[in-house]
Amino acid sequence: MSYADHLVLRNVWLSSSVLSLSLFGDALLYVILPVHADAFGVSLAMVGFLLAINRIIRTFAYGIIVEIAARIGLKKLCLIAATTAIASTFGYTILDGAFWLSLSRALWGLSYAALLLITLSYAAINPVKTGTRIGLSRSVEQIGPLLAMTAGAWLATIVGPKTVFAYLAVGSSLAVVLAFLLFEKAQPNSIKHPAKPNRLFPKPDSLDALIFWMGAGVDGVFTLSISLMWAEHVSLELAILLGGSILAARRLSEMLVAPFVGVTADRIGTRMPLTIALMTSILGFAMIGMNWLVVGSCLLVIARGALGTLFAAAVAKIYKDSKVRALARNQTWRDIGAAAGPLVAGAALTVVSPEILHIGLAVAFSLAFLWFIKSPGWHILAFEHKTG
Fold first, then answer.
1. Nearest alpha-carbon partner for 303 in 320, 317, 326, 286
2. Nearest alpha-carbon partner for 185 in 75, 82, 69
3. For residue 114, is pLDDT > 80?
4. How big is the CA angle at 287 (ends 284 and 209), to the nearest 5 degrees?
5. Chain segment 131-143, per-residue pLDDT in tens
6. What angle do CA 101, 106, 112 make, to 5 degrees?
């Protein structure tokens, strides 16, 4: 490995670790807030809004963050975002009420958007072994949330649901130290000279449509409804336990699957593993729609663990000259989908069953996949395989 490659890999490790540590507070809040809403001075009705507002903020933020990165560089942006992430986590300890917690969640949304783009930009800095670096990055990213949802949840039973976030903020402070260690010059040229955006919501291409439906389907509808579907077959307590276990398995899946699919994409090209993961997603939605909950959930969890890496790798290969802007647009549409999914599903579940919703998602995902097959990006990935 050359010295330049060593610096690139070092930045991937460091930036991914910064994001992983910064995720402590957000990950635990999803566990703590729904059952301790009173301790935070909010109603149960406000919980959903507080957990979603960071995604809403991110849909507007990615383009602006790319511009900021072009002005100050990735390292300085990482230092700022890591610091604001700590402030957001500590805010859960000292702030009460919907207004102040909304500000803290909005601050986290901006922090996460910046940190995610930073990690993806470092991982996609050059076309050689892009999949391997993105897979490594996505895997490291999941360690922090898993620790928060396990050790953090245990600590909350000892020190209380609000005080625990002060401890997590202290733990997250290591992220600032790691951000200082980033090598500033090892960043993509597309950060220094990004293409100018021409609209608030960038026009989606076929790959953006796929990631939109992944966000709406897996991160939205599936996450919202899986416990409800289990409750039709088992007790409510067991349904909650099963639903929570499946969602935790999603993060574990990404930690384990992402490095493997990243290396595979570098060896045989991105198109084949991406196709397999997309077909697995479609099959998973269909299986859940037919009430095969165990099989369908397993398929979706595995596919989601793979697609987080493969979408980013595909974007980096298709948009070599404007990859940072393309990654920002891609993540924008994922967050739009993840925000819209629960909102639409919440209304739709009053008139149709969750099984019907998942069948609809299988159809929508299939149509988006067909659009992608007819796009120039599909043929670029085929050329990558032939020349790789």
1. 286
2. 75
3. yes
4. 40
5. 888 888 888 988 9
6. 125
Domains in the chain: boundaries: 3-192, 206-387
Q: Domain 206-387: give its CATH code.
A: 1.20.1250.20
Question: Residues near 117 by Cβ (< 8 Å), separated by ≥ 6?
Answer: 62, 65, 66, 69, 324, 327, 328, 331
Show the DSSP H helices in 124-222 as ranges.
Answer: 130-141, 143-147, 153-159, 163-172, 174-180, 189-192, 206-214
Tokens of 166: 């002060």
Give tens-digit pLDDT for 188-237. 554 554 545 445 566 788 899 999 999 888 887 887 777 778 878 878 66
d(CA 258, CA 34): 30
Four-way CATH pick for 3-192: 1.20.1250.20, 1.10.1420.10, 1.10.287.110, 3.90.380.10: 1.20.1250.20
Instruction: Tell me whether domains 3-192 and 206-387 share a fold.
Output: yes
| Contact in structure between 357 and 349 (CB atoms under 8 Å) | yes
